[in-house]
Amino acid sequence: MTLDPRAFREAGRTALHDPSLRVALGRLKTHFALGRAQAVERYGDWESLREQGRAIRDYALARLDALLEQFERNVVAVGGRVHWARDAAEARDVMLRILREAGAKSVIKGKSMVSEEIGLNPFLEANGIDPVETDLGEYIVQLRHEPPSHIIAPAFHLNKEDVAKTFRAVHDTLDPDRSLIERTELVAEARRVLRARFESADAGITGANFLTAEEGAAILVTNEGNGDLTRLLPKTHIVLTGLEKVVANLDHAAVLLRLLTRSATGQDISSYVTVMRGPRASDESDGPQSFHVVLLDNGRTRLLGTEAEDVLRCIRCAACLNHCPIYAAVGGHAYGATYTGPIGAALNPGLMGVGVAHHHANASTFCGRCADVCPVKIPLPKIMRYWRAREYTDGLAPKAMVAGLGVWAFLAKRSRGYRLATAITARVLKLLSRNGRVHALPVMRNWFAVRDFPAPQGKTFRELWAARK
Amino acid sequence: MTSRPRIGLFVTCLVDLVRPQVGFATAKLLEQAGCDVEVPVQTCCGQPAWNAGADRHTADLARAVIDAFEPFDYVVAPSGSCAGMIKLHYVESLAGDPKYLPRAQTLAGKTHELISFLVNVQGMKTVAAHCAARICYHDSCSSLREMRVRAEPRELLASVDGLSLSELKEPEVCCGFGGLFSVKYPEISERMADDKLADAQSTAADLMLGGDLGCLLHLKGRMQRKGVKMRVRHVAEVLAGMAEEPALGES
Questions:
Q1: Is-contact B188 A329, C-beta < 8 A?
Q2: What is the pTM for the complete model shown?
Q3: How many domains does chain B have?
Q4: Which residues in chain A are contacts of B44 at CB distance < 8 A?
Q5: CA–CA dist B191, A21 (Å, integer)
Q6: Does domain A45-298 have CATH number 3.20.20.70?
Q7: What ipTM was estimated for this complex?
Q8: Where along chain A do its domains lie?
Q9: Per-residue model confidence as pLDDT tens digits over A300-351
Q10: CB contact under 8 A, B184 and A362
């Protein structure tokens, strides 16, 4: 599956008519939105917590350079190394170099959206290294050669039957008589295969939910425990993440954790929260012998100081996806990008260019639910609108829309002309209507493609009001 | 302030063009609430340009609205969407205009969506209206999340004689109108409309009310295309006792 944000319209159309995807997306509400609402309710003063979270992220972004340098010093102090990657290509090269130096052939991975962002898996495979995903959802989409369709639930677009079919097709050691109907049976089957990979891996790659500058720690949230095994079992552990993930200290991270798990899965706390700091110390009996952190920029710092910078506050909880009617209609794959839903719509134009990700910024009604549920109060519609304005001023907006708006604005700025135009339009529409509706017109074809236009009353309010007086 | 506040009625371009009756219902309600209503020269609030990123057009239209409406005690619109534009986005649009920015801020402070104005500012508790119907109420996203209006229309509707309200299961979900969105992504808009219509039909309501004509035109248009028999009106028509007139899209 190739990722192309420019094909959003076509991919979205296909998705709208995919019955099994409809079933899967129907679970957004029951699986995520409901749980979040209940967790927020249980918590109590959620709004104060959100405000605290926003402030913590803004504090970090305002001194990003200093915190990152402090983070690096503290990672080095406990025997780890920090690597900086300006873009995806640099990040891939750094990862390959570290793995080659470690002599790693077999690699296990915790879920990392940054790994998806830089296209790490195909790159490693092309270079003779075999990566296997250990997050169940990520493992499933890896087997299917698909990208994740959701930030925290990579296989959200699939139903249980799809997963069973995939395991039967790919797991050649799977007994054909074994039942794969229940979720637990699917988990057990994945665990059976992954166990051997965990034990034989040369290196483990994880993402990080937060980095803390004062402690030089990376924090990882999982529900499967796969992140811990990925860190602890192999000789080498690499944390790959975006450089905006840094916060001042563990206290700040603790506040964000409260926001993250409730917003993401409706859990008060996830099953595992792992604080990962340096390699195995001399008095420790387990843990990696070498520890690396690879920090990716890839366009993030370019957003600082722009109207889009608030998007960097994101803690990747996916609440915005789970409450987005556009995401619920087309699913994640239609976006053709790693980051989907409202956060993708606000972030991707910044990372990829508005000319590439223009659909993401435009395919929104600005309904505002995303901003309402965002745990760090990112004004997502406002940022999407900012990208539309950039698209418009950069001359990238569709010519027909610009011309149409031009004509409309010309009239709207001239009250008399506008009054005449609306009086004529109201009458013409009324004349063209049958049974209270206009069924088709040679203009506004996309309106009439899916709906009629209820007939106007025939005269404008301004005419009638003037006559009344 | 005098005992009768002077209202600049921002009628909205859709009401002006398609359904003047909503404008008259609005004026009637405002007068019942003890206000003097005037209709200054106006065209559009500029929201289509703003949402499209056409910032120069938006600023031009915003300045015209400010010029026309700042003499009034209040600006009231029968729409959460247009009121939200004036209240929240003019200050963003005119952030770089030192002459108009303070005026935009002042105007924002006195701009209201109709129903919330009646209830929260003028203290209206009941209306004297009759409408024998089982209704469902469509909250527009801008009313809900920009203007934070939810309880007010329900409070006034509760006093309408003969009317009963069946709530949608998901009143907070967008109907898929979104202005130009409805023509930029018609298939997604269609899906969202159909989800909303299914929700509305499951309430067994025979009349849908709402506070934003944009959503209602989109939903009624979709009903007409699909042959769904549900009448649709702006809530102001019912509150003003004008529910005897033909509903939206009825000849």
A1: yes
A2: 0.97
A3: 2
A4: 412, 418
A5: 14
A6: no
A7: 0.97
A8: 45-298, 399-468
A9: 999 999 999 999 999 999 999 999 999 999 999 999 999 999 999 999 999 9
A10: yes
